[in-house]
Specification:
Length: 191
């Protein structure tokens, strides 16, 4: 019941957000409708993209948060279980050096086995894979939003910079090739 209410609220939020961004987009698309000019007008026209991306990012952020919570819960549960195992073997902390070293070795072995077992488990692998996947989805949304904001401010986007780097790399290769050909000509003329 609570999950259905949350889903309904989320759907209502999306619907309302998209409604208002559509209104703002319509207003911004009419030159006489908004008094702003320049970057602010451009920003107003891009708000629909930004809002849509933020809503989608919100879903992925919730998924990421859930996976991250599950990840830390698995680590915490494993730690607590390993600590219980150790405490059952050593109910009291030893006083002499030899027993402390032995207790330390046992502690390391217990924790190593517990965490190795956790990291080898299918449950951990599945959750960790989904955690990384949701993190990548989230970063895609952030990159798209940043790209829209940079474009709105008339600043170069990541794609623009990547294109410049590709062209620079191509030019360097051409220069190296020309210099190499020039050296070969000079060597042949010197002989």
């Amino acid at each position: 019941m609570v999950l259905e209410q949350d889903n309904k609220k989320n759907a209502d939020y999306k619907h309302l957000s998209l409604f208002w961004t559509d209104i703002l987009y319509l207003l911004a698309s009419k030159p006489s409708a908004i008094a702003s000019a320049g970057p602010m007008r451009k920003f107003a026209m891009q708000t629909k993209k930004l809002t849509t991306e933020m809503i989608e990012a919100n879903d992925d952020l919730a998924e990421f948060s859930k996976r991250l919570t599950d990840y830390y819960k698995l680590l915490s549960d494993t730690w607590n279980e390993a600590q219980k195992r150790f405490n059952s073997k050593f109910p009291e902390i030893p006083n002499d050096i030899e027993h402390i070293e032995a207790a330390k070795r046992v502690w390391v072995d217990i924790f190593e086995n517990a965490f190795t077992e956790l990291f080898d488990s299918e449950k951990f692998g599945e959750n960790f894979g989904k955690l990384i996947s949701s993190e990548l989805e989230l970063s895609k949304h952030w990159n798209k939003m940043l790209s829209v904001l940079l474009e709105t401010a008339n600043l170069p986007t990541k794609d623009d910079i990547d294109e410049v780097y590709r062209e620079l790399h191509s030019l360097r290769k051409r220069i190296n090739k020309l210099e190499k050909n020039e050296r070969k000509k000079e060597e042949n003329n010197g002989k």
